[in-house]
Amino acid sequence: METKYKIAVLLSIIPSIINMAGSAYLYLNFNRTDFMGYLLGTILGIILSVIWLLQVKKAAGSHAIKLLKITYKGFFIKFLVFAAFIAGVYYLVEFSRTWFVVSFFIALSMSAVIELWFYSSIAKQK
């Protein structure tokens, strides 16, 4: 499980790199609100990926069903954090909701693939 976890950590860097490259592109070619939206989505995606990695590390050695429960709970937590963030931060910082959603869902979908790979590979081992 330890090697699978290390691979998952390395794979989790991929969405971050893609979104940071997207942020740089928007910084150079779009206006400030578009850039801020994409950057905030990138930051939120990175934070949620790190939270998932910490949860998995804490549950290391547990049964695969417990790890799968972490994924389902994590998805709902991600959705609630997303809704609270979009509702609360929008009034504090001016940013494009559209680019925020694009960036966040790129990170979320790629993280979901990594999480599902991790759980299926752990389940196959046991």
Question: What this model shows, in words?
Answer:
With 126 residues, the protein is mostly helical. The protein has one domain (2-125). The chain contains four helices and no strands. The protein has helices at 2-29, 32-58, 64-88, 97-125. 27% of the residues are buried.
Which structural class fits the helix and strand makeup?
mainly alpha
Number of domains: 1
Overall geometry comes to: elongated
Total strand segments = 0
Largest sheet: none
- Distance N terminus to C terminus? 10 Å
Number of helices: 4
Order of helices and strands: HHHH
Strand content: under 5%
Unreliable spans are none
Q: Whole-number radius of gyration?
A: 16 Å
Helix proportion of residues, in percent? Answer: over 70%
Q: How confident overall, as mean pLDDT?
A: 85
A few lines on this structure:
With 126 residues, this protein is mainly alpha-helical. Helix content is 87%, strand content 0%.
List the helices and strands and how they pair.
Elements lengths: L1 H28 L2 H27 L5 H25 L8 H29 L1
Helix pairs in contact: 1-2, 1-4, 2-3, 2-4, 3-4
List the main descriptive attributes of the protein structure presented here.
126 residues, mainly alpha, 4 helices, 87% helix, elongated
